[in-house]
Design a protein that fits this description.
The protein is mainly α and 62 residues long. The longest helix is centred in the middle third of the chain and has 59 residues, at 2-60. The protein contains 1 helix and no strands. It is rod-shaped and about 90 Å long. The chain has one helix at residues 2-60. 95% of the residues lie in helices and 0% in strands. It has a domain at 22-61.
Amino acid sequence: MCASKAKVDGQLEVKNKELQESNANYNKIVDNQRKYFKALKDFQEECDLNEELSRRLEQSSK
């Protein structure tokens, strides 16, 4: 009976390590996704600013 419990405890430990690795990978992916969306937002803001400045430049040259 003790051997069976030890075996199950060993399997549990392996599964817990796998879970921790999966959580770490998930957190990396989520962090990368956050960085991507922030970069996308920053890029969009710069595009909007560029359009506004181009519009002002065009109006001032008329």
